[in-house]
Amino acid sequence: MSKDQGLGALLLIASVVGIVLYGWLVFMSEWSLLALQATGFIAVAGVLGIAAWIGYTMATAPPPQPLEDLRAESEVVEAEAVG
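Above: the chain sequence. Below: its structure as tokens.
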């Protein structure tokens, strides 16, 4: 068995154990409400964190060049290539 296959098998086993543990925690534990609240919070925080990262990236990115500047620049490059 290669290293990748061993890592894949370990990941499979850990995932199945995690599913069983989470199922027990949600359906058979006295901590079920807390588990659901934590899961919901983590999911919403993850989505909003990604949205915040996209917003930050858009807010701090330089504005795009106007199309007229790009056309003029491409004409200069074409003229240099021909001449």
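The chain has a mean pLDDT of 90.
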